[in-house]
Amino acid sequence: MILIYYYMMAVCVAVIGKDNSPKYIKCLDENTALQFHYKVHTTIDIIEEKLNVGNKTASDVRELFLGLLFSAEDHKIFGYATNTKIKFVVILQSTNTLLRDNEVRTIFKKLHAAYANAVCNPFYVPGDQIKSKLFDLAVMEIMGII
After folding, report:
1. Are 11 and 93 contacting, i.e. CB atoms less than 8 angstroms apart?
2. Cα separation of 69 and 45, whole Å?
3. Whole domain around residue 119: which residue ranges?
4. Looking at residue 81, which CATH number applies to its domain?
5. 75-81 and 87-93 as β-strands: parallel, antiparallel, unpaired?
6. Considering only Cβ atoms within 10 Å of each terminal Cβ, which end of the chain, N or C, has fewer?
7. How far apart are CA 146 and CA 141, in angstroms?
8. Which helix (H) or strand (E) segment is 38 a member of?
9. Closest listed residue to residue 106, CA positions, set 136, 133, 61, 138
10. What is the pLDDT of residues 13-42, one digit of tens each?
């Protein structure tokens, strides 16, 4: 029951493709969706910078969780990048001070597993928008809608 409280703080979840085009964006409040789309797009540069720091060799083991990308007075933006350059962005409310990195990592692991299930569908065309009902349900659970 406590984990559901943490998930209720997610106000926006986004999946960005390896070509930096949005594949999926879901916002809690559709009236402020444009504001969150802007925040997601501005974090792409930060993610790219974190991924390219030092130009690591192929033998380096890279941490998928990128941590806190940006913090504003009302939201915290966290990032995660897969080995295939797919990026996940989750925007959380700043009012939850009890949220630790472990809980945020759990959110991203769940999102990554749902994404893997969605793209493994034989009817999914790689590079297209994600239109999976199961992926939608996983995202709504992270956002606390269901």
Report:
1. yes
2. 10
3. 2-143
4. 3.30.450.70
5. antiparallel
6. N
7. 5
8. helix 33-51
9. 138
10. 999 999 999 999 999 888 989 999 999 999
